[in-house]
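#help-structures
NK: newbie question, is this the right format to request a structure? protein is IreB family regulatory phosphoprotein
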Amino acid sequence: MKFESPKENVNEARDIILTVYEALKEKGYNPINQMIGYILSGDPTYITSHNNARSLIRKIERDELIEELLVFYLKNEEKNK
């Protein structure tokens, strides 16, 4: 089975990740730990409602979040070779 994600959501996913990260930071949370908790569990209470972050992150599927993070990481690894 081959998995293909819709490409139109790539910029939206990136924007949401960055917005949620900033909202978590502003509220004094460890953004990485909170976002990992959300991705692994699906529990939206890991994400603050500050700046509408909780609603934003629920707009995209967790697998899309993982894909965006993996693509970003691998592209940066290629640049550093």
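mod (FA): yep, format's fine, and the tokens are attached above. DSSP finds four helices and no strands in the chain.
NK: thank you!
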